[in-house]
Amino acid sequence: QVTTTPPRADGFQVVGTVADLEKNGQLLNGETAAGKVLIVKYPKNTSQIIAVNPTCTHKGCVVGWNQDQSSFVCPCHGSKFASDGKVTNGPAEKPLSTYTAKVEDKEVLVKI
Ligand code: FES
From the CA of 62, how far away is ligand 1's center (Å)? Predict the structure, then answer.
């Protein structure tokens, strides 16, 4: 269960814990101030994280992170997006929105 607190004065919002991110390899929070946010560790084996709005720009399905392909993949019609949100495979034409993400005190924060 992900608990959601309001955004802070600096624009960052806590979206989950590092423990959950480590456990699942990705962290989806559907209730941020910006709607759905998906956080993944990337590049692999680093402490860096990236965050996107996982709503597919084709017809709105929720994309997931595919570690082997280093891509966000849509389960509905197969669109693929690179780690920076750019389309690498249609039918989607527009990139996923990205957010600035960081870790602080074992919590994952995203700038909304
Ligand atoms: Fe994602 Fe169609 S909704 S590819």
Answer: 8
